[in-house]
Write a structure and sequence with these properties.
The protein has 390 residues and is α+β, with helices and mostly antiparallel strands. The chain contains eleven helices and 20 strands. A hairpin with a 2-residue loop joins strand 4 and strand 5. Bound molecules: flavin-adenine dinucleotide (FAD). Flavin-adenine dinucleotide (FAD) is lined by residues 35-41, 58-61, 67, 70-72, 76-77, 159-160, 189-191, 193-194, 326-327, 354-356, 365-368, 371.
């Protein structure tokens, strides 16, 4: 390859994206303005445009859909056939928006079928669904392509700062200029990046992250993994119980099971760990007796630190690494929203979708399922509202 003809540098790519963003021509007024071009916003924009509404997406980042690329460790666990309303923090509202039982997953998959995405279960025992390409980029790319076909205008590098009397105020990242765009209806899908001030909302709190704990020599166990049955206990009562891999960290515990428990854990709770969940107590005693230690059952490095038992407990101090939390609880209170359209009851023409709404679920495709389904409802609702008013 000739010198200088290699891959463009990050700086060059950024400059090109900024130039592309600056070149986007925005109308003065549009039927539907979608604020935030992530998971929920892209689906909302597609549904709005396919319903015949002229649609613009204002996105703070240099490209739409970048948040999707990091999901599922780059593979995007896009839904889960085990989704039940009871898995979310507000089951009644989730069901009112997305339907009962596996209906939300069916809806999401049917939408992605229409985008041309091939999907499959991870394995026969697991209801998690991934693109068969195993690449989150496939999910992002089919969404962008469908949005373009529907005529959605992407306005990237534009940060939404306010909504006032049918006009959305935004800042151009490339020029720092403040501008407005008029809209018949607005869909807010910015996660915690923008919540209209006048709408009642709950403070955001990180969820799905590691747990800081005391009571075990975590510094000596850092990096070790173990299959475990974990119980979260408060005042002698078991609040949650789940089996899966735990990862020891210097500050406490991580891993999907622990992430799920972070949705309920409070300082002072106890985490009870059984590090040999497939071996009952009687057999465990017999194996330890035969081997002279638990090294034949549990990772010897863990046994070297914790000794020959299989049950251990530690005390929750709080959540850890919250800056990397996968979701935030909080945002627009569900009581403020009409579940049929996701329109804010007190603000006709203002709709919300995705994590900006106070709905969150466990790991395993649940949060993207909410993003896709709520995006579909809000985008369709916004288009219908704008058309009636036009
Ligand atoms: C590392 C990681 C892995 C994850 N993996 C999974 C998974 O495999 N499965 C799953 O179900 N869930 C997963 N999640 C959760 C999932 O990604 C979110 O629940 C989902 O993306 C929420 O969709 P959203 O559209 O509300 O927000 P986002 O997808 O975050 O989109 C919000 C968009 O709004 C833009 N924005 C923010 N503020 C402004 C503003 N002021 N103006 C304009 N634009 C703005 C952002 O740049 C972004 O593009 C993961 C989360 C993380 C962090």
């Amino acid at each position: 390859m000739a010198k200088g003809q290699g891959k463009p540098s990050r700086t060059r790519i950024r400059e090109q994206l900024l130039a592309d963003a600056a070149a986007a021509i925005l109308p003065d007024t549009v039927d539907v303005c979608v604020c935030g071009g992530g998971a929920a916003g892209l689906v909302a924009a597609i549904c709005s445009a396919e319903a015949g509404a002229s649609t613009v997406v204002l996105e703070r980042d240099l490209e739409c859909g970048r948040t999707i690329l990091a999901t599922g460790n780059g593979r995007c666990n896009l839904t889960n056939f085990d989704v039940k309303p009871g898995d979310y923090n507000d089951p009644a509202f989730f069901e009112a928006v997305c339907g009962p039982g596996g209906f939300a997953a069916e809806k999401a998959l049917s939408f992605f079928d229409g985008c041309g995405l091939s999907t499959a279960f991870e394995n026969e025992d697991d209801m998690r669904v991934y693109p068969t390409s195993d690449q989150a980029a496939s999910v992002r790319d089919v969404l962008l392509a469908r949005a373009r076909r529907a005529g959605v205008v992407f306005a990237c590098a534009r940060e939404v700062e306010g909504i006032d009397e049918g006009r959305v105020l935004y800042r151009e990242v490339f020029s720092d200029a403040r501008r407005t765009i008029g809209a018949g209806a607005v869909v807010v899908a910015c996660r915690e990046g923008f919540v209209p001030e006048s709408v009642e909302s709950e403070p955001f709190q990180p969820m799905l992250c590691p747990i800081a704990a005391t009571g075990l020599p975590f510094d000596k166990l850092d990096g070790r993994r173990s299959d475990a049955r974990v119980a979260l206990v408060r005042g002698g009562r078991t609040i949650a119980r789940e089996r899966g891999e735990v990862l020891f960290r210097p500050y406490g515990l991580s891993g999907i099971v622990i992430f799920n428990m972070s949705r309920q854990a409070q300082p002072g709770d106890t985490l009870e760990l059984d590090l040999a969940p497939l071996v009952d107590d009687e057999r465990f005693a017999a194996l330890v007796s035969a081997a002279g230690s638990a090294r034949g059952v549990i990772d010897p490095a863990i046994v070297g630190v914790l000794g020959d038992a299989k049950r251990f407990s530690c005390t929750v101090e709080g959540l850890a690494q919250t800056e990397h939390a996968q979701v935030r609880r909080g945002g627009i209170a569900t009581s403020q929203l009409d579940p049929a359209t996701l329109m804010v009851r007190t603000h006709p023409g203002l709709f919300a979708a995705g994590e900006v709404v106070d709905i969150d679920g466990p790991c395993g495709g649940y949060n993207l399922t909410w993003a896709w389904c709520s995006g579909e409802v809000a985008g369709s609702g916004a288009a219908a509202y704008a058309r009636v008013r036009a």
